[in-house]
# Entry
Amino acid sequence: MKVEETGVVDMQVIEAIDKFQEEYPIETYFAQAKCKCSTFTNLKEPTCDGFGLNKTNNGKTGKNYASGIEYPGLHRTLFWVLRSIMFYIDSDERYQHLTVDIVSSGYRCWTDNNYHNRVSTNHMGKALDIHIIKKEKAKSEHTNDERIVCCDLVRDILTEKTNAEYRWFHSNGIALENSYTRYHPKKRT
# Structure
């Protein structure tokens, strides 16, 4: 953002954040990150509007945000991380041959999990699957090895620039999952 780091949030910093948001829009990716359960057919349980129904893993609703509950949206840190990926790809010549392709999976509620016979809860507000590809090639033309290299480069960006960690050694931070064909940030609390 090219603003001196002083620890003070003044008008210059606020204006730089606003400019950063304009230069690296996420609306398309945000739409891609919504839960897909409403598109499924032959469901016997209610579908969500994209961000869960506040259900727990046993089907009860409530405000106890323990493991297994559907958070009421995606953690904003995930989208700031996405913007930072876009920024570093754009501004660092080592990465300018890359581009963010899609968010293939964002929010997944219990209806989605049940439909796919999954019990994982990391996509209930705290994870995104982001596909990074080379600009000069269509996604379908990338070999698996090329996709792995793209993901490794993004991991390099995030560990170097944002203090993200590979795997989950600490809580309350950004952790990168071991995925070879997509970048998978998680917000740990």
Summary: The beta strands are 98-105, 129-134, 165-166, 173-176, 185-188. Residues 144-161 form the longest helix (18 residues). DSSP finds five helices and five strands in the chain.
